[in-house]
Amino acid sequence: MRQKKENLILHNHNDDGVDRRGFLQCMAWAGTGALYVLKGGILRSYGLSDSSALAAGVPTGELSFIQISDSHMGFDKAANPDVVATLRVAVEKINAAPMRPEFLLHTGDISHLSRPTEFDTVDQVLKGAKVSQLFYVPGEHDVLGDDGKQYLDRYGKGTKGGGWYSFDHKGVHFIGLVNVLNLKAGGLGSLGPEQLEWLEDDVEGLSASTPIVVFTHIPLWSIYPDWGWGTDDSAQALAYLKRFGSVTVLNGHIHQIMQKVEGNVTFHTATSTAFPQPQPGAAPSPGPMNVPADQLRSLLGLSSVNYVLGGHSLAIIDSSLA
Amino acid sequence: MKRSIFSASLAVGLVLGTGAFNSGGQAFVASAQQKAVATEVKIDNFSFGPAALTVPIGTTVTWVNRDDIPHTVVSTDDPKTFKSKVLDTDEKFSLTFSKAGTYPYFCSIHPKMTGKVTVQ
Question: Which residues in chain B are closer than 8 Å to A184, comparing Cβ atoms?
């Protein structure tokens, strides 16, 4: 019963009740200084203090990037016998976007079995994406057999510990975390004390108005613990981010879109480019979900994230491969 | 390497029928040969079945992955007493338990999957 997700605004961070077709229900009101403008099907918020910029047209200084996830290169079972093809479709979508994304975040499970050829193939396909940079965090499928050594050799330059890092772009602070190492029996995802300490230091000097984007593989909120869909020590991480006015958490792992807003934190999980998984509790286990071939691409996809500088939060638009 | 309390699964089958003993080609079974008791644990739907298994000393337990996602079989003891390689669909991992005790394990990729072998 899934609706076509293409060009759908699934979540409005500014909470003004805009429905899926982007019908504008709320305009500027004096005092709060919030103006919502719909342009090209994308809802953006502008501070009224930007009135000079607004008068001139669309404010410049926008940040746009793409999140893809769970390419599982090497997977070849019934749920999708050709994960290369579907990854290629995702790249085509990225290149066809009206607004050129500046970079791509891959939130993990790049490979399916941590095999070198699998990583090589993903690198090859993603070379075709018209983005200037690629950022990664590992999934549990990327650190098999060697505790992530190969992952670090390939993607870990400039990272710390198991592969965590941060960078700034146009005033937004991006944090890549690793929660798929040293997993304990019966447990969920894990960040670990060393990474948490690093995170605390990393954000300490930032002003509370700095928009924060955290990206990591396993969800940082408890979606469905029975299926391992959560992170044991995420509360500690979120505590360090509590003072910030805008925090966006981008995750993968569950191969479907889920979103949650809690105060100033917006959580978003992405679809996979490889295969869908069932909704929580809708199947005996979270394994690959077989669907008729003509439906597969509608359940795979990518997310486009847009941020207007000086604005409060990020707009995430999910689109399917169909 | 510590004296292993397990023996690899290959040992049991190789002694038989090698034809190296006499011209008659009769198989020679070593008297110290352990009992050929085998038990299987099926991995499917992100779970070990049976999750709790009790076996006599000398049993060879074989885990077979029937799921369409890879899994591992890793001891939760510290230090680990056994650790399989990554098992894709239809791949197997075997252990012969030659010492009594309780051996809890889990899948290191999907840590919610846990199991236990009790040897007595």
Answer: 111
